[in-house]
C-alpha cells in the first residue's frame, strides 16, 4: 500500500476530487495547510500598504491506495492539479505498512 500526499492550490480541489472519483478512489483526507517552496511567498497590497505573505495557503490531499493503483492516482493528481505556474505544489509517495478499518477490524488493502 502507498500513501500519497499532494499539496495543491485551493481552486483545483474539485477537479482533483472528481478525477480521482472517476478512477474509483472514493476516500481521501483534505486539510488546509500553509507553507512555502521555491516561490518564497509573495507580497500583497492592503489599504495602500504592502506586506509579505511568507506562508502561502494550500490544500493537502491524502490518499491511500494499493500498489497497483499508485501510478493512476499520481498521474490523475498531476494532470488535474497542474496549471504550469510556480506554486502548483508537490506530490509525496510513501510506503504504508498497514491500514486498519476501526469498525470491522479489517487489515491491509481490505481496509481501504
Which structural class fits the helix and strand makeup?
A: alpha+beta
Q: Oligomer, anyone?
A: single chain
Apparent shape: elongated
Which range best describes the helical content: under 10%, 10-25%, 25-40%, 40-55%, 55-70% or over 70%? 10-25%
- Counting structural domains, the number is 1
Strand content: 35-45%
End-to-end separation in angstroms reads: 10 Å
CATH architecture: 2-Layer Sandwich
Q: Main sheet?
A: 4 strands, antiparallel
> How are the strands ordered across the major sheet?
2-5-1-6
In the CATH hierarchy, the third-tier topology is known as Alpha-Beta Plaits
Cα-atom Rg, whole angstroms?
Answer: 17 Å
The arrangement of helices and strands along the chain is EHEEEEHE
Low-confidence stretches: none
CATH class: Alpha Beta
Query: Total helix count?
Result: 2
Mean pLDDT: 90
**DSSP strand tally:** 6
What does this structure look like?
The chain has two helices and six strands; from the N terminus they run βαββββαβ. The chain has 112 residues and is an alpha+beta fold. It has one domain: 2-Layer Sandwich (Alpha-Beta Plaits), CATH 3.30.70. The strands form two sheets. A four-stranded antiparallel beta sheet has the order 2-5-1-6, covered by helices on one side. Strands 3-4 form a two-stranded antiparallel ribbon. Helix 1 (13-22) packs antiparallel against helix 2 (70-81).
Amino acid at each position: 500500500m502507498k500513501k500519497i500526499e499532494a499539496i495543491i492550490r485551493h481552486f483545483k480541489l474539485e477537479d482533483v476530487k472528481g478525477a480521482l472519483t472517476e478512477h474509483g478512489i472514493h476516500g481521501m483526507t483534505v486539510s488546509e495547510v500553509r507553507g512555502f517552496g521555491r516561490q518564497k511567498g509573495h507580497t500583497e497590497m492592503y489599504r495602500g500598504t504592502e506586506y509579505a505573505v511568507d506562508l502561502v495557503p494550500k490544500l493537502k490531499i491524502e490518499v491511500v491506495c494499493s500498489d497497483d493503483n499508485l501510478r493512476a492516482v499520481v498521474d490523475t493528481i498531476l494532470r488535474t492539479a497542474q496549471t504550469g505556474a510556480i506554486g502548483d505544489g508537490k506530490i509525496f509517495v510513501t510506503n504504508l505498512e498497514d491500514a486498519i478499518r476501526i469498525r470491522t477490524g479489517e487489515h491491509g488493502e481490505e481496509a481501504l
